[in-house]
Amino acid sequence: MDILSMNPGFSISDQSSLVPAASAACVRLGQTFTNNATFTPQHDAYKPLIQASWSETTWQAPACIFVPRTVDELQGAVSILVEKEASFGVRSGGHMPIPGAAVVDNGVLIDLSRFTDIEYNGEHDKVVIGTGLRWQNVYDYLDQYGVTVVGDRDLDVGVGGLILGCGLSYLSESYGLACDNVVNFGVVLADGSTVNANEYSHRDLFWALKGGSNNFGIVTSFTLKTYPIQQVWGGTRIVSWYQVDDFLDAMIEYETAPDRDPLASVNIDLVATNETIILTLPTMEKNRPAAFSVFDRFETTLDTTGIKTLTELMSEFPTPPIPRIRHHALTIKPTKQLTAALKAVMLHSPAHAHHPIRHRRHRLEAGQPRSGGGGGAIGNALGLEAVPQSWFGLDLRWWDAADDERMRTAGAALYAEIEEAAAAARDRGGRLRYLFLNDAHEGQAIMAGYGDENVRRMREVREHYGPHRVFDRLLAGAFKLP
Ligand SMILES: Cc1cc2nc3c(=O)[nH]c(=O)nc-3n(C[C@H](O)[C@H](O)[C@H](O)COP(=O)(O)OP(=O)(O)OC[C@H]3O[C@@H](n4cnc5c(N)ncnc54)[C@H](O)[C@@H]3O)c2cc1C
Hints:
Layout: H1 20-32, E1 38-39, H2 46-50, E2 64-66, H3 71-84, E3 88-91, E4 108-111, E5 118-121, E6 126-130, H4 135-143, H5 159-164, H6 172-175, E7 182-188, E8 194-198, H7 203-208, E9 218-225, E10 231-234, E11 236-240, H8 244-256, E12 267-271, E13 276-280, E14 300-303, E15 306-309, H9 310-315, E16 324-333, H10 336-347, E17 352-357, H11 361-367, E18 389-398, H12 404-424, E19 430-431, H13 452-465, H14 470-474
Parallel strand pairs: 2-4, 3-4
Antiparallel strand pairs: 1-2, 5-6, 6-9, 7-8, 7-9, 10-15, 11-13, 11-14, 12-13, 12-17, 16-18, 16-19, 17-18
The structure holds flavin-adenine dinucleotide (FAD).
The site of flavin-adenine dinucleotide has 33 residues, from strand 3, helix 5 and strand 9.
């Protein structure tokens, strides 16, 4: 059953336990939008709406949940929240596992899951996608036209959060990050107005949204470039743990090869708990690239590589349903010395993923200003250094809420060991300033990692588009400007 049809309308009973401003905003939302858009704890749909967030670590208790159908309704809601000075959170796909990133205790949750419009324009190689879609919806729709976009590698993740964190895709080696492929953001600002931010209009906002998360506005739609890619060579290999030493050397060999194939992409997950290495190998071509031959010497327990659609490739291994997750992000320069230091740490790590990012010219051009058309003329806000780098993500997953604190402490300790190893290797590479927002935990200083000058520019954008720092004060979220 559609969650939202479970209990239509809005009713107020016991509001006494709610924070007054949010409570007052909920009443006004319910009175203003009488079309089954506002849900309080008394509604049957309230709990399933909270539990629509992917990780149980995020399940808090908002005063109410507002689910707008149109941009007009969202604009009206923002005006009410600002007028009442109510704290609120914004959710698209609900996959960020950070507590309070979207669902906020005693505040108002704005759920954007009804923004699901999608429209492909084959003449201009673009698609407009609503922020409430999941990547599976986007890829399934585009498959009928034989094209795709730079989006997520996991089909269930939401469109909005991924792009606003810049988004790492299997296509990123060739076409940059997801945010680099945005040609227009449709945005609702703190004063309730809407703007289109693109290369020609509101250029400063356009730049800041490429990495700026929810600091500047609520994005309702994204226009992305499309690419004529459908059938690819690729798949997953599972390698037994006893080969891990040699495997990590092969990874360095792959990462530092001078002539790496820009159409090939590699992702590895080291899963110490079940003693496997999961290697995902997509290329954007129909032939197996020579660059992957470095991995051929490893004995596999499973190998699904072959020709298939990129969507099929991504659906082969859905994320295991372990309900609680905590990420840690680290950016390192791939050197032998550092990898050797990391090996020991990894051996007792529950799981971590490793995304090599080869800063070839094409990628730098995607992320930094360049001449010519499209979003590339403006660049993104990440301030990436022009060196080959690996975005290293430590993922801890567990079952019980009783273990939350233990996992937080264990994650911090493990991360500290990895950081120490990276710091020790600094003279030969080591740790880089940038941290990948989409893989980070709430204690990580993400925006500061974009560099002083970019933070200064983003502060200007925030002042310009949200006087009185409305979103900074009222909109919950994991990563604020320092
Ligand atoms: C299983 C799994 C696989 C993943 N795989 C990848 C991957 O391959 N590549 C990658 O880059 N990342 C990946 N991620 C990380 C993912 O991109 C982030 O967690 C992202 O924030 C999820 O987006 P969402 O819309 O689902 O999240 P949400 O939790 O809805 O939102 C995340 C944050 O963005 C803000 N936000 C969301 N939508 C909007 C909007 N429209 N306007 C303003 N602010 C908004 C929210 O307020 C919140 O703070 C993965 C995460 C998981 C759990």
